[in-house]
Amino acid sequence: MAKVSKKRAAVNSKIEEGKLYAIDNACSLVKEVNTTKFNASVDLHIRLGVDPRKADQAIRGTVSLPHGTGKTKRVLVFCTPDKEEEAKAAGADYAGLDEYITKIQGGWTDVDVIIAMPQVMAKVGRIGRTLGPRGLMPNPKTGTVTPDVASAVKEVKKGKISFRVDKYGIIHTSVGRVSFSPDQIKDNAMEVLSTIIKMKPSSAKGTYMKSVTMASTMSPGIKIDPKSIK
Q: Phi and psi at residue 119, in whole multiples of 5°?
């Protein structure tokens, strides 16, 4: 059995096994139990009572975090030549088409979000097998396929994130960094959770939000009482 460091043991002792914490307490505790020396991400792991194989229960969407993500996202825009300057002026890190498709075919995926104009999606579809598994494929449902690429770039840079349920019925998403105040973490978390609650499919039976866990990178998870999410 792996030996637990004194620091990790002290952190683990702060979280009561089996206890469900109110969201306010969890947002303070997640800062206390962080063991990293860097500004770690604070993530939510939400287990839903849905069957992702059914189209109407494959939950996915976007939300604008009130306090942003705490991370500067690298944005690539696939667009026609006349829109390249507009995209870059809005904050895009990269803008173009054929040269970036070639780069991605060569193994480059050093971006966080890809936005595309509808008229270039036929070409982008060629690299779908590379982008899809990495969660980078542009999609109209998440606002990343749009003729107004400048607005889409600005929203991403301000803190708009996308989320989707995985094949196990779980949504994993970041709601900030450990440098955020407990109130900022809570505001961001509630924005995500309330959006997901509103998206409950009418065909989903039983408990919809089965469990909610908050954790920072490499730190133990804190189970949140779903009843505290109002």
A: -70, -10
